[in-house]
């Protein structure tokens, strides 16, 4: 039976102890004070006061987070059944600051196409699953402060390497259903046939089996996978717009959103996100790739 929830294993969920109270009201107050008063700002503040999304998490003592289980080095299960990866390490650190203990996290396995639905249905409180911010997604979920950036990469066999996107016209490109790659190529390259899969494992198996001519993933993942599979190469390392990867919450969860914004910014300023990169991503990318390629989330003017 396929694993649907990481929490089915005792390694993935620890029983909660004491919950540390956080000063979310102070955070909201600081954010409000930083900008002039306006009807819009007053409305946001009122929504945050009415919303109790963060307080409910603190009362339960568990932070439910949707993650990938087959997306190394960002979210995956190692040979011992333990969750690993950048997204998971970051989610655990956020949980520690929120509830006082990183083990008060419930990791829920998701697929790319299910991330929005898991939030809308209340299965999870937040998504930390290589979730790229797009205008379409912003209409149905709220994104917090980004923590990574990426473009799209294309991996193909070295024997038949794809170095130009037009080489794929009339050929088959493998993508994850509902992913940024799916959206981008559907919109911009109708002459490329898309073979879509729910799970990363199935998608890359299809590439290995020759069912597609290439695969498109976020460049962060594409570069990592190609480095571990020497018969393949990222012939196109960046294509499309620069994407920002961020935590997402359900529309209307303004209290939780405000807290996450403050938290991610704090972890960036203190260098904690850099430390998580060094622990989880640097062993994959090596020292030849500057971490700022992924961690500098300042929008380009």
TrEMBL record:
Question: Which GO terms of the cellular component aspect does the record hold?
Answer: extracellular region; membrane; outer membrane-bounded periplasmic space
By what name is this protein known?
Solute-binding protein family 3/N-terminal domain-containing protein
Q: What is the lineage of its organism?
A: Bacteria, Pseudomonadati, Pseudomonadota, Gammaproteobacteria, Moraxellales
Q: Which GO terms describe its molecular function?
A: ligand-gated monoatomic ion channel activity
SUPFAM superfamilies noted in UniProt: Periplasmic binding protein-like II (SSF53850)
CDD domains named among the record's database cross-references:
PBP2_Cysteine (cd13694)
**Keywords of the record:** Signal, Transport
Q: What is the annotated signal peptide range for this record?
A: none
Which residue intervals define the domain Solute-binding protein family 3/N-terminal in the entry?
A: 62-284
GO terms for biological process, alphabetical: amino acid transport
Which protein family is it in?
Belongs to the bacterial solute-binding protein 3 family.
Residue ranges occupied by any Ionotropic glutamate receptor C-terminal domain in the UniProt entry: 62-283
């Amino acid at each position: 039976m396929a694993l649907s929830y990481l929490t089915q294993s005792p390694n993935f969920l620890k029983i909660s102890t004491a919950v540390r109270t956080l000063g979310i009201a102070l955070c909201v107050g600081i954010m409000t004070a930083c900008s002039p008063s306006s009807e819009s700002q007053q409305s946001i503040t009122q929504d945050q006061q009415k919303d109790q999304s963060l307080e409910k998490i603190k009362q339960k003592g568990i932070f439910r987070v949707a993650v990938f289980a087959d997306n190394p080095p960002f979210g995956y299960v190692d040979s011992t059944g333990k969750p690993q990866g950048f997204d998971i390490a970051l989610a655990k650190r956020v949980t520690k600051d929120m509830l006082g203990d990183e083990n008060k996290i419930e990791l829920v396995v998701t697929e790319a196409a299910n991330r929005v639905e898991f939030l809308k249905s209340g299965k999870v409180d937040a998504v930390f699953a290589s979730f790229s911010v797009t205008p379409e997604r912003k209409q149905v979920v709220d994104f917090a402060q980004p923590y990574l950036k990426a473009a799209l990469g294309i991996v193909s066999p070295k024997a038949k390497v794809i170095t130009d996107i037009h080489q794929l016209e009339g050929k088959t490109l493998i993508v994850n259903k509902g992913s940024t790659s799916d959206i981008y190529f559907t919109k911009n390259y109708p002459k490329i046939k898309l073979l879509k899969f729910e799970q990363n494992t199935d998608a890359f198996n299809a590439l290995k089996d020759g069912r597609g001519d290439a695969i498109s993933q976020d460049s962060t993942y594409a570069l990592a996978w190609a480095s571990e599979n020497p018969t393949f190469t990222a012939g196109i390392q960046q294509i499309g717009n620069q994407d920002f990867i961020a935590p997402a919450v359900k529309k209307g969860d303004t209290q939780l959103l405000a807290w996450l914004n403050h938290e991610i910014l704090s972890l960036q300023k203190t260098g904690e996100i850099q430390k998580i990169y060094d622990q989880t991503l640097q062993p994959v990318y090596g020292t030849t790739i500057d971490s700022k390629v992924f961690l500098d989330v300042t929008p380009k003017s």
